[in-house]
Automatic annotation (TrEMBL):
Residues of the signal peptide: none
Species this chain originates from: Marinomonas hwangdonensis
Segments crossing the lipid bilayer: 39-58, 94-112, 124-145
Superkingdom to which the source organism belongs: Bacteria
Pfam family, one: DUF3429
InterPro entries for this protein: DUF3429
Full protein name: DUF3429 domain-containing protein
Record's keyword terms, sorted: Membrane, Transmembrane, Transmembrane helix
Entry-linked PANTHER family: TRANSMEMBRANE PROTEIN 69
Amino acid sequence: MPTPKLSITTLLGALGVIPFAVATYLSWADYDFWGVSAYKLFSTYSAIILSFLGGALWGQLIHDESRQSVKYLLISSNVIALVAWLALLLGTPTLAIALLLLGYISIFWVEARSLKLILSPNSTYLNMRLVITSIVCVLHIFMLYPHY
């Protein structure tokens, strides 16, 4: 029996979790990375990935912007990316990571809602996104939990 092939989106999604895990480990081990705090590594990477997900959602929906629901989803993806940027500007690591966590929850909800219009509810892509988003959210929670 042939083994199932790993899609490029699944592979890239899984690899994308590694920097979150490394920064979380560095934070819990109380290490810096070349003089940069683990919180800064985590939050900047998180904001970049959250913005990327917003842009990817934009790309999926732009072809059908005539529908009112799609307009709201496009606006939502932009708002989430702007919140990620704002989180970095706050200068309060805990608040930034909390806002980014809410951003991941929000972008998944927006993406799942929009992709239900395009894909089947049992889509392997949505299932993969749920798993990866859940892992990323748990890592955000670990970053928020005091570990003295």
